[in-house]
Amino acid sequence: SQQLGTVLTSRVSQYACQRRTTLDNRNKIFTDAFEVLVEHLEFSDSKGPCLAFKRAASVLKSLPSTLRHLGDADGLPCLGEHCRDIFECGKCSRVEDLMCNEKFRTMKLFTSVFGVGPKTAEKWYHRGLRTLQEVVSQPNVHLNKMQRAGLLYYRDISRGISRAEADAVGRIIAETMHCISPSATMTLTGGFRRGKAFGHDVDYILSTPESGAEEALLLRVIDRLRYQGILLYCDYQESTFDKERIPCRRFEAMDHFPKCFLILKLDAMTVEDGGLQNNPEDQRGWRAVRVDLVAPPADRYAYTLLGWTGSTQFERDLRRFARLERGMLLDNHALYDRNKSILLPAKTEEDIFAHLGLEYIEPWQRNA
Ligand code: TTP
Ligand code: MN
Ligand code: MN
Ligand code: MN
Fold it and tell me: How far apart are CA 109 and CA 116, in angstroms?
């Protein structure tokens, strides 16, 4: 582990926003094990140790080579005593127990449905339900609109979206948007912007040159998608944005901009090369895809782009770094300097990194 030695002497930062993390994860055997433990803790609502495991996995993802000896972890941040058995055997016995535990497996299945969180999954489990077939055929299980859509399109939504499919979605949204407003722009964000080959959804930011027209644009885009007959599901969240508000101290993934969580019908004919990620026996000629659209005011575009590009761990550490190392508060809406008591303006992501005194990290290096 000579390479690792070099890494250790050059010091790995405890903050993901000071590490460059590509999709080339050399420590997948360890990070997969951590992710199982994280899922288990998220099902049982214990937030504290959960974050410690997430940080440990994130540090490992940033390393240029595989950890070979327990000692390799010594100089690294966030890899405390609680990580020992994972290194000792790759897959620790706790992880293996969980993987075949009936409750864990069922919770994993139920929470994989769009609209189903740990609370609902737990309720279903305690009613004795074990399969999605049982959930849909139980007359006394109440399902909300989101869960009904999640179950109806489960097969499609649980299958990853390819880059070609994401691009096809992008062309549909762009065309629809430009019919309404030729000067509006659209930016790919989320996992695909970080270079992922597959995603669970496609995330876009819609923007207008002038602040104030974005919410109406988003509503009209949704109307047109509906008119085209390709809107299978729409959860619209109206703006609760307040331009005077200072970013809050706690990490909140959700922001206050107008946005929508959609399921769109994607026609195979619109996808270039390769076609749909369907099973060969699936002859429908279309698939359902999850799409998120957010429409921030133009002057908050850079903050939204930085926030929606993720990864979530990268965002969490950007905000923690801002608060603890710079006395600043950051979220998807703004950056607030607590010493000067001012909101700092930014046109680009580079501006925000510069305000924070951080080296710029490219989107594909934010897979923390
Ligand atoms: P996701 O689409 O959930 O995740 P992802 O694109 O990184 O990966 P996947 O392939 O599984 O889709 O979220 C993208 C980013 O958007 C994530 O960093 C969280 C952020 N986000 C907000 O900042 N505010 C919001 O209101 C929502 C819904 C997401
Ligand atoms: Mn996404
Ligand atoms: Mn996700
Ligand atoms: Mn998303």
Answer: 10
- Which domain range does residue 28 map to? 2-98
Q: Are strands 286-294 and 259-267 parallel, antiparallel or unpaired?
A: antiparallel
CATH number for the domain harbouring residue 52: 1.10.150.110
The closest alpha carbon to 146, from 206, 236, 278, 277, belongs to 236
* Position 209 pLDDT exceeds 80: yes
How many separate domains does the chain show? Answer: 4
For a substitution probing ligand 1, which of 312, 349, 367 has the most ligand atoms within 8 Å of its CB?
A: 312
pLDDT of 181 > 60? The answer is: yes
ω into 311 cis (within 30 of 0): yes
What is the best residue among 111, 308, 331 to mutate for testing ligand 1's pocket, by most ligand atoms within 8 Å of CB? 308
Protein residue closest via CA to atom 11 of ligand 1: 200
Give the pLDDT of residue 219: 98
Structure tokens, 94: 């706790």
167 and 288 in a common domain: yes
282 catalytic residue (yes or no): no
245 lies in the same domain as 332: no
Rounded Cα distance between 186 and 178, Å, is 10
**Cα–Cα distance for residue pair 177/157, rounded to 1 Å:** 24
| ipTM score over 0.90, yes or no | yes
Quick one: pLDDT band at residue 178, thresholds 50, 70, 90? Answer: very high
